[in-house]
């Protein structure tokens, strides 16, 4: 006769069975795809005539932001902000880095890769790094298990192609970069499907000089720039297809954006300014987030977000620890549609070491211009940061083109933003505080915004 189970053994048996049947959950995978010099108006889902069906699909199946800023109008600083969640002027990367530079993102700054690696993630960087090429600054010293890409922009020399810390091509073949990046990324996804992973994919394009593979060159209706965008879109489609093939699409957060506004080609989407400007055209970017089942489909988010928000958002989602204080905030409620806005204090916009604008909610207060019409023969490239005699205030909700100064009608708001700026600036490194103090000591006699250019034609 079968022995009767006592109460304790019965509970142990049934509880064990329940745990055995319960699906094992693991932290979500994270993929960040970063274009280079892509404009706010360069995707079909943002009003472009260029064909971007895969990114359009991401937007239909996820959330598309109307107001997302790259945190800086040029590449190295914006990448530092994205990977650390901190102002680039706080982390020591206020300028674009060049091959002659011996510095990079400082070792005491913790990247998203290091943060996630500490909680068991596999990590890979594929694409343009641009945060230092000396051994101590390369991706594998900054939390990435492996690296494939070029350390600088494609217009800089030497244009190495690297695998991990070894140069495998002295001059990377530009036409092959997007497909080779994509092949590397897909391979990493397939090899890492057994554990949580972080893929950071900063593309080379559409930074000039433009190049597309034979499969895409001459195929768009908008010249080489259109060819390049369509190939980038294809690459995104390959990433999404790989996630689906490997059963990872329901547990992977994919984010797509760009490092700054368009340069000589591309569309800023009718916004004022371009790359190198702290006008919206230089910093406002497409931002699409996709995670089926966690992020609702076809969501258009009007809430404002910054590149500095990506790191703290990923930390919260993945159960990772933020070692250093961050300047960004957790925007998961915006991604899921649970909130229309998230609380935050004033956010500052820098060009080089110069604080030029500050944003509080829908309002943006301009203090100075670096890419101004004021010519200085002693400044690098003839450019000089000029403090405006009177700050200019723009309502980005009703006036996203920043065409109508509303400072005179909102003196209390101007004073409030100014007071908040002073409080925040007090916590920046001495070099940044001094640049701010020096600029304030020499305001322009007239605001340069309406002046004709006085830069010599040659």
Task: State the main characteristics.
single chain; 458 residues; Alkaline Phosphatase, subunit A; Arylsulfatase, C-terminal domain; ten-stranded mixed sheet; four-stranded antiparallel sheet; 27% helix; 18% strand; globular; disordered N terminus; disordered C terminus
User: Largest sheet, if any?
Assistant: 10 strands, mixed
The level-1 CATH class of the largest domain: Alpha Beta
Average pLDDT score: 91
Uncertain regions spanning at least 5 consecutive residues: 1-23, 372-379, 446-458
How would you classify the helix and strand content by structural class? Answer: alpha/beta
Helix content: 25-40%
Cα Rg: 24 Å
Principal-axes shape call: globular
Task: Provide an overview of this structure.
The protein has 458 residues and is α/β, with parallel strands linked by helices. The chain has 2 domains: 29-336, Alkaline Phosphatase, subunit A; 347-450, 2-Layer Sandwich (Arylsulfatase, C-terminal domain), CATH 3.30.1120. It contains 11 helices and 14 strands. The protein has a 10-stranded mixed beta sheet, sandwiched between helices. Strands 11-12-13-14 form a 4-stranded antiparallel beta sheet, with helices on one face. A hairpin with a 2-residue loop joins strand 12 and strand 13. Helix 5 (177-191) runs parallel beside helix 6. The protein is globular, with a radius of gyration of 24 Å. The relative contact order is 0.15. The model is unreliable at 1-23, 372-379 and 446-458 (pLDDT under 50).
Strand and helix map with partners:
Layout (H helix, E strand, L loop, with lengths): L6 H15 L7 E7 L17 H9 L1 E7 L5 H10 L27 H6 L4 E5 L19 E4 L11 E3 L2 E4 L7 H15 L5 E6 L20 H23 L6 E7 L21 H4 L3 E4 L8 E8 L3 H9 L13 H5 L10 E5 L2 E7 L2 E7 L16 E10 L15 H15 L4 H12 L17
Parallel strand pairs: 1-7, 1-8, 2-10, 3-4, 3-7
Antiparallel strand pairs: 2-9, 4-5, 5-6, 8-9, 11-12, 12-13, 13-14
């Amino acid at each position: 006769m079968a022995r009767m189970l006592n109460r304790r053994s019965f509970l142990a048996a049934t509880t064990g069975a329940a745990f055995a049947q319960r699906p094992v959950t693991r932290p979500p995978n994270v993929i960040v795809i970063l274009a280079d010099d892509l404009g706010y108006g360069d995707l079909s889902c943002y009003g472009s005539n260029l064909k971007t069906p895969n990114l359009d699909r991401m937007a239909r199946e996820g959330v598309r932001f109307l107001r997302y800023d790259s945190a800086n109008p040029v590449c190295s600083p914006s990448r530092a902000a994205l990977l650390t969640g901190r102002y680039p002027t706080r982390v020591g990367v206020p300028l674009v880095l060049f091959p002659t530079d011996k510095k990079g993102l400082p070792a005491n700054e913790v990247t998203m890769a290091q943060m996630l690696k500490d909680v068991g993630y596999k990590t890979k960087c594929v694409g343009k790094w641009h945060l230092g090429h000396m051994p101590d600054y390369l991706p594998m010293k900054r939390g990435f298990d492996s690296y494939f890409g070029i350390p600088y922009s494609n217009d800089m020399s030497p244009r190495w192609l690297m695998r991990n810390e070894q140069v495998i091509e002295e001059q990377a073949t530009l036409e092959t970069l997007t497909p080779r990046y994509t092949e590397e990324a897909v391979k990493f996804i397939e090899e890492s499907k057994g554990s949580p992973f972080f893929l950071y994919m900063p593309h080379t394009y559409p930074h000039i000089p433009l190049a597309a593979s034979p499969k895409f060159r001459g195929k768009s209706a908008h010249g080489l720039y259109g060819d390049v965008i369509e190939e980038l879109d294809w690459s995104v489609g390959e990433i999404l297809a790989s996630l689906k093939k490997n059963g990872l699409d329901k547990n992977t957060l994919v984010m797509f954006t760009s490092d700054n506004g368009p340069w000589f080609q591309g569309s800023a989407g009718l916004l004022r300014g371009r790359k190198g400007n702290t006008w919206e055209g230089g910093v406002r970017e497409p931002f699409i987030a996709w995670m089926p089942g966690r992020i609702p489909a076809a969501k258009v988010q009007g809430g404002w977000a910054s590149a500095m928000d990506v790191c703290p958002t990923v930390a919260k989602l993945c159960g990772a620890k933020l070692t250093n204080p961050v300047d960004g905030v957790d925007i998961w409620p915006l991604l899921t549609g649970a909130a229309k806005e998230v609380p935050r204090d004033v956010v500052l916009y820098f060009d080089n070491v110069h604080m030029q604008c500050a944003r509080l909610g829908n309002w943006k207060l301009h203090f100075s211009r670096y890419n101004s019409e004021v010519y200085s023969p002693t400044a690098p490239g003839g450019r000089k940061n000029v403090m405006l005699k009177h700050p200019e205030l723009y309502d980005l909700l009703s006036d996203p083109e920043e065409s109508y100064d509303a400072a005179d009608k909102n003196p209390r708001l101007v004073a409030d933003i100014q007071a908040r700026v002073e409080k925040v600036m007090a916590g920046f490194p001495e070099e940044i505080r001094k640049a701010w103090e020096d600029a304030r000591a020499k305001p322009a006699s007239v605001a340069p915004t309406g002046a004709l250019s006085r830069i010599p034609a040659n």
